[in-house]
Description:
The protein is mainly alpha-helical. The protein is built from eight helices and no strands. Helix 2 packs parallel to helix 3 and helix 4 crosses helix 8.
Amino acid sequence: MTPAEPPRYGSGVREEASRWLEQARADLDAARRSLDAGIHYLAAFLAHQAAEKALEALHIEKLRQPPLHTHVLLDLGAAVAAPPEILDRLRRLNPHYAVARYPDAANGVPARMYDAAIAGPLVDAAAEVERWVTAESTPAR
């Protein structure tokens, strides 16, 4: 391995991917709980995080490479050959990595910019991404 070449995972790839997917599911659960609690900006951010970590899990498993160092969901989706309907969900989720957290990105206070009508579909989109990743990760029998 040269310094410019990323390390490749060996036999521990499934374990590493499993950890990423487990955290993606925990983030999705936290997004749902935040939505139920009326903390909509947090639900939106956690939905983004759930999708990102699920895609990282699939990247590790399929490509046997370390996670990409990006929060751009469309780049992560392209890397794992996500189908158009998943790319559409990623397109919807992508802005909320920053907009849900930073007043300058939201042009206002994120806590006041989100409601259930905005956050709910984002949580649903993240759940669809997680289901697709799970299906893609399951070995054919």
